[in-house]
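Folded chain entry —
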Amino acid sequence: MSRHFVVLSVNGKQHRYKLESHERLLDLLRDRLGLTSMKEGCGTGDCGACAVIVNGEIINSCLMLAVQARNAEVETLEGLGTANRLHPLQKAFIRKNAFQCGFCASGIILTAKTLLRKNMNPSRQEIRKAISGVICRCTGYLKVVDAIEEAAAEMRGETVGSTSKS
């Protein structure tokens, strides 16, 4: 098997690896870097549990070969905030109690981050469309949409309310 030298940035830290051609980005992140927020749900790119941000775009890491991430900027949930300084999305998801099992949390939060980078004031329909690629079997998505909407307001500097809309 051929091995490839790859340099990539993960959560702002540069890494260098010799990788087999067949290694997936998901496996590199979980097995070599110990970043376990993204999960392998389906392995076919259908569930979104393995979603990460690569060069500003959300991708399913189970479908991307690690060598394709050469010179890329990769963001995982572990790089979003710290225990002492949570990202507004993390705070809103906690306040809204938006998750139950948390298996899809990483994919939904990173998808929301990608959406809010492009559109700081999305409609509820735009939020629903953005997260439609991540399957959650525990919630009805209402609290998830509420949390994303609340985080967007906080990121815009608006006062955060506690009302829920459908």
Q: What stands out?
A: The chain has a mean pLDDT of 94. Strands lie at 3-10, 13-20, 51-54, 57-60, 73-75. The helical segments are 25-32, 88-95, 105-118, 124-131, 142-155. The longest helix spans residues 105-118.
